[in-house]
Amino acid sequence: MVESNPLISVIIPVYNVAKYVRCCIESVERQTYQPLEVILVDDGSTDDSVKICDELENEFDNITKENVPSSFNCVYARYTWL
Fold this sequence. Notes:
Helix content: 25-40%
CATH architecture: Alpha-Beta Complex
Structural class: alpha/beta
Strand order of the largest sheet: 1-2-3
CATH topology: Spore Coat Polysaccharide Biosynthesis Protein SpsA, Chain A
Number of domains: 1
Distance between the termini: 24 Å
Oligomer: single chain
Order of helices and strands: EHEHEH
CATH class: Alpha Beta
Number of helices: 3
CATH superfamily: Spore Coat Polysaccharide Biosynthesis Protein SpsA, Chain A
C-alpha cells in the first residue's frame, strides 16, 4: 500500500549565503505539503551562514544541518544526501 503523504526531503546546499538562507528556509517552511524534512548541507561557509543554519535547526523540528569539511568540494556536499 502506498503512503498517502510520503516524506519529501528538501536538500539545500549552503555556502556563504547568510544574506539569503533565512528567507530560503522560511519559504520552504511555508509550504503546505506535509511531511517535509529540510537538510541544510553547509560546504565550509566562512560567513554567518553556519550560525543562521544552527538557529534554524533549533527553531524548526524538521530541519537537520550537515557540515561538510571545507576540503571537500561542492559536488560532494550536494550529492552525498541524494
